TrEMBL record:
InterPro entries: Nucleotide-diphossugar_trans (IPR029044), RGP (IPR004901), RGP_fam (IPR037595). SUPFAM superfamilies: Nucleotide-diphospho-sugar transferases. Belongs to the RGP family. This is UDP-arabinopyranose mutase. Coiled coil: none annotated. One of its GO terms (molecular function) is UDP-arabinopyranose mutase activity. It comes from Gossypium hirsutum (Upland cotton). Its main location: Golgi. It is an enzyme of class 5 (isomerase). Transmembrane segments: none annotated.
Length: 363
């Protein structure tokens, strides 16, 4: 494979990556991303009222799915796709037929690095995904595969080949992804700190995965990227990406793949309403004191040799161990199984493009 650092960003994975955008707004933000995104195919997941027309700027190649499409394509299995929550974005991962996914929110813009240069977030995510991860031994000079860096003294040579990278988790300048209580206490706080680093999250360590600037290898870890039951009719919201991140990290640790965090930065422009967020998050804020120990204690049997087998095993353990925390987790465990069934329905061996689906997108 050619060195990712030498391939021009405009052609990097052009035909192997889809950009998934959940939206209830217009998509004018794409104008700022045009130089970086135009060569790529977009999958737009329109949340909320399906009768509302979403205007996509001219010149982008896209498919758009609204709630009517999701219901038509998945039938009863559409129950596992959240409504009125950014969690709906995971439908885009399911209908894509590409090897890689990049997902971004419609209030995230191109940030500038300390030199004032526009950051091509997609290019950095691709570099992160195409270079190995080092989850088994921490390199104190951060990403050893980056130009101008390397493994430091004492780093075992037997581990320097690294492992495949499944996830690239980017960060945010301006509005940081704080939870509602922190937003309420620090309403004016802005993230101005640009940390020029990419690091692998060590094996055995969970992390709070934010979905607003996230890329992953869909062929490796796609089935684990279910964003759960959130929003309308659910007791919790804004834990969609967290749930997916915990399941994903446990599975990556088990299968020996890496998860990276750090560069690239995007500019997050809109602080969602902290009071609305508090209402969505509050159950999650105390449930997570039980959820984190649960995920830390999950052990996957040796015969869980595929992501789907791992995922179903986690769903079984969710039902067995978290069902007593709240009946919501029984429903979530069932929805996790429905998600895998729906994934298999849309991704039978041989289907090449989403247009091969029995009922394709609205557009
Ligand atoms: O009901 C909804 C609300 C929003 N969206 C789309 O989802 C993203 C994120 O929305 P927004 O920027 O308003 O929310 P944030 O609080 O900044 O989102 C971050 O917090 C987490 C919430 O789960 C999430 O990981 C981050 O995205 C936008 O594109 C909205 O248009 C929606 O589809 N449905
Ligand atoms: Mn936002």
């Amino acid at each position: 494979m050619a060195d990712p650092a030498t391939i021009s960003p405009a052609t990097l994975l052009k035909d192997e990556l889809d950009i998934v955008i959940p939206t209830i707004r217009n998509l004018d933000f794409l104008e700022m991303w045009r130089p970086f995104f135009q060569p790529y195919h977009l999958i737009i997941v329109q949340d909320g009222d399906p009768s509302k027309a979403i205007k996509v700027p001219e010149g982008f190649d896209y498919e758009l799915y609204n709630r009517n499409d999701i219901n038509r394509i998945l039938g009863p299995k559409a129950s596992c796709i959240s409504f009125k929550d950014s969690a709906c974005r995971c439908f885009g991962y399911m209908v894509s037929k590409k090897k890689y996914i990049y997902t971004i929110d419609d209030d995230c813009f191109v940030a500038k690095d300390p030199s004032g240069k526009d950051i091509n977030a997609l290019e950095q995510h691709i570099k992160n995904l195409l270079s190995p991860s080092t989850p088994f031994f921490f390199n104190t000079l951060y990403d050893p595969y980056r130009a101008g860096a390397d493994f430091v003294r004492g780093y075992p040579f037997s581990l320097r080949e690294g492992v495949p990278t499944a996830v690239s988790h980017g960060l945010w300048l301006n509005i940081p992804d704080y939870d509602a209580p922190t937003q309420l206490v620090k309403p004016l706080e802005r993230n101005t700190r640009y940390v020029d680093a990419v690091m692998t999250i060590p094996k055995g360590t969970l992390f709070p995965m934010c979905g607003m600037n996230l890329a992953f290898d869909r062929e490796l870890i796609g089935p684990a990227m279910y964003f759960g039951l959130m929003g309308d009719g659910q007791p919790i919201g804004r834990y969609d990406d967290m749930w997916a991140g915990w399941c994903t990290k446990v599975i990556c640790d088990h299968l020996g793949w890496g998860v990276k965090t750090g560069l690239p930065y995007i500019w997050h422009s809109k602080a969602s309403n902290p009071f609305v967020n508090l209402r969505k998050e509050y159950k999650g804020i105390y449930w997570q004191e039980e959820l984190i120990p649960f995920f830390q204690s999950v052990t996957l049997p040796k015969d869980c040799t595929s992501v789907k087998k791992c995922y179903i095993e986690i769903a079984n353990q969710v039902k067995a161990k978290l069902g007593k925390v709240d009946d919501y987790f029984n429903k979530l465990a069932d929805a996790m199984v429905t998600w895998i069934e729906a994934w298999d329905e849309l991704n039978p061996s041989g289907a090449s493009k989403s247009s091969d689906l029995p009922n394709g997108p609205s557009k």
